[in-house]
Design brief:
Layout (H helix, E strand, L loop, with lengths): L13 E2 L2 E2 L3 E2 L11 E9 L10 E5 L25 E5 L5 E7 L15 E7 L7 E7 L9 H5 L9 E4 L4 E7 L12
Parallel strand pairs: 4-11, 9-10
Antiparallel strand pairs: 1-2, 3-6, 4-7, 5-6, 5-8, 8-9, 10-11
């Protein structure tokens, strides 16, 4: 007898319209090498309305370009206390904040180097599965040679470029749909 797959359900748990609040937003404690950065990720639905009960997960290499992962065995420094992973819920303004260091460049499996970037997963009501995207730093010269950015239609690349405000915070609006939809990746 063949059994079909169990259908997906939206992510959760949700209580009174909000996802459980989760915070692991400081990826790089004091003493970790690299340029300190602050991130502000703001989540919008397809109609451009803020999502006050979403969840962002971020994953990044350290400033030397090494991931804190058993499969990254490259001979690069691994900073004590840096795990490269963070998780934060959005607030009433749809924003989640992270504190870290600017990641170094990492190799592309088919050769060459990727520009500094942060991988992002988004969980929110109405999504059957997480969606994944990336954050790149606007103005970084390595963006021009990044193999992932080169695969994206030039008109849509801006949806992945965080911009720095007058206080030095790197901000990225993430749109789940609509005319400003962020580029998302299969993974």
């Amino acid at each position: 007898m063949s059994q079909g797959l169990t259908p997906s359900q939206t992510i959760g748990p949700f209580y009174f319209g909000t996802i459980i609040k989760a915070y692991h937003h400081q990826l790089a404690p004091p003493g970790v090498a690299g340029e300190r950065i602050e991130l502000a990720l703001t989540l919008y639905d397809g109609a451009g309305v803020i999502v006050p009960d979403g969840l962002f997960e971020v994953w990044q290499a350290n400033s030397h370009g090494r991931y804190n992962h058993p499969e990254d065995r490259r001979n690069l420094p691994l900073d004590a206390g840096f795990d490269g992973y963070g998780r934060a819920s959005t607030d009433t303004k749809g924003c989640a904040r992270f504190s870290s260091v600017k990641p170094g460049r990492v190799p592309w499996p088919q050769g060459g180097m990727q520009a500094p970037h942060i991988s992002i997963s988004i969980f929110a009501r109405g999504l059957l599965n997480r969606v994944a995207t990336r954050l790149y730093f606007d103005g970084d010269p390595a963006n021009a040679e990044d193999p992932v950015l080169k695969m994206i239609d030039p008109e849509r690349r801006a949806t992945l470029l965080a911009k720095q405000d007058d206080k030095g915070v790197w901000g990225l609006p993430v749109h789940l749909g609509g005319p400003k939809e962020t580029v998302f990746f299969d993974c």
